[in-house]
Amino acid sequence: MKVEIWSEIACPWCGLGSHRLDRAVERFEHSGHVEVIHRSFPLGSGLPEDRTLSAREFVLAKYGVLPGQAGVPDIEGMAAAEGLAPYRVLDNRVGNTDLAHEFLAHASAEGKNGEAWNMIFRAYFGKAESIFTLDDLLGFSDKLGLDREQTRQVLADRRYRRQVQEDAHQAQRLGATGAPFTVIDGRHAVPGAQGTDALLGLLRTAWNETRPVAVAPGGDAPACGPDGCAVPTRP
């Protein structure tokens, strides 16, 4: 069963949503038959490519309020309650993530989809590491065991730019207006950072819809059919 999740790598709800999906798959009775595929939904293309901004100042300027204030959800606290700690949101930096998404597409093409996405999420939210520059991404390339010079050339050529854009367009065609956006088995699409229990329920629903019920041998157990009811013989 295929599960696809579209994310913006610098979106705190996406990092939390990815964590929740992992927990749901771990609890799923048929987890060995689930393939999780991460896809790109860039949201920071309008930000400058040559510098980063304080996340605290960026959020305050855009929304006029910070998480945890005036009824706005405390994402860091929620993440900590679910086993993600530290989870750095307000003390982080934000910037243009297009190149990071192209790096993730390259890593995916090299068979490192889940490993690469999880590494970037952990680095960005867990350690507040920069993920925006070519040098940053080459460092992640080394950690993943990718060829450094090949990665440099791929990113310099912007070889995966169109694929990243197509990823986002595909999600929009499926109904996504933001990230995260999860599609289970090609039929069940859910927006936002759904809770672990909700995702687990969807996994079970999708599995049951496509797998026939196995009928165990009934032996001599009495039953009724079109021709009438069987009458058990007396011992």
Give an account of the 3D structure.
This protein has helices at 12-27, 55-63, 75-81, 98-109, 113-127, 134-144, 148-156, 161-173, 196-210, and strands spanning 2-7, 35-40, 53-54, 93-94, 181-184, 188-191, 224-225, 228-229. 34% of the residues are buried. The chain is of the alpha+beta class. The strands form three sheets. A four-stranded mixed sheet has the order 2-1-5-6, with helices on both faces. The chain has one domain (2-225): 3-Layer(aba) Sandwich (Glutaredoxin), CATH 3.40.30.
Which short descriptors sum up this protein?
235 residues; 4-stranded mixed β-sheet; Glutaredoxin
- Going by helix content, strand content and strand pairing, the class is alpha+beta
What is the overall shape? Answer: elongated
Report the strand count.
8
State the helical fraction: 40-55%
Assign the CATH class: Alpha Beta
Total of helices: 9
Could you state the order of secondary-structure elements as H and E? Answer: EHEEHHEHHHHHEEHEE
CATH superfamily: Glutaredoxin
The tally of structural domains comes to 1
